Each structure stands twice: as C-alpha cells, then as structure tokens.
From TrEMBL:
Organism domain of life: Bacteria
SUPFAM superfamilies the UniProt entry points to: Dimeric alpha+beta barrel
Organism: Alkalihalobacterium chitinilyticum
Protein name: Antibiotic biosynthesis monooxygenase
Molecular-function GO terms, alphabetical: monooxygenase activity
Length: 101
C-alpha cells in the first residue's frame, strides 16, 4: 500500500470554506485504478492545518494518476479558484510506503 499526505495551512477564517470544498469534492479520483481511500484530516491543535490523505494499492498506481488528464484537470481548477488567498496555498506533499500493518 502507498499513502500520500498533502498538507496545507489555511487562514483561520477560511478553514470551514476549505473543509466544505473537500466535502463536496468531485470524487473522480475514486474511480482511478488502484485508488483505495480519501480522507481529509484536521489537526486538533492547529485547526488550520489540513491534511489530504490518499491511499493507493501501489506507488505505480499513484504515479499513473498524477500523470493523468484527470489529475491535471482537477489541479487546473484549483489554480483558477476565485479566492486568490486559497488558490496560492502550496501543499507539502509526503509519500509513504506501508512496510508493516
């Protein structure tokens, strides 16, 4: 299994807006080969720190998705988000191979 975290820090006044965007996400990634799960995590101490956690069957499946047209379309929409403050946030991406369960 392969897990990817994309961590973003959003201003306090935008936290609920961002959470709502993810709650209404298109779910198109859910249909990608090798996709297992999506979770949006909120740090309990630093409420503005949100982590998108995606689980994949393998590293190969994840990289196939990030090279796909579907990935490009989703991320182009993010760049065009009307709220410049949110559109300019760059995630910190961490990738993990599961080595024990």
């Amino acid at each position: 299994m392969y897990i990817v975290h994309s961590i973003v820090v959003v201003p306090d006044n935008k936290i609920q807006e961002v959470i709502s965007l993810y709650q209404k996400r298109s779910r198109s990634v859910d249909r990608e080969e090798g996709f297992k799960s999506f979770k949006l995590l909120q740090n309990e101490v630093r409420k503005g720190e949100l982590t998108v956690q995606m689980e994949w069957e393998s590293e190969e499946h994840y990289f196939k998705w990030i090279r796909s047209d579907n990935f490009k379309q989703i991320h182009e929409l993010e760049k065009k988000y009307p709220d410049y403050e949110l559109a300019s946030i760059k995630p910190i991406v961490q990738r993990f191979k599961v080595v024990a369960t």
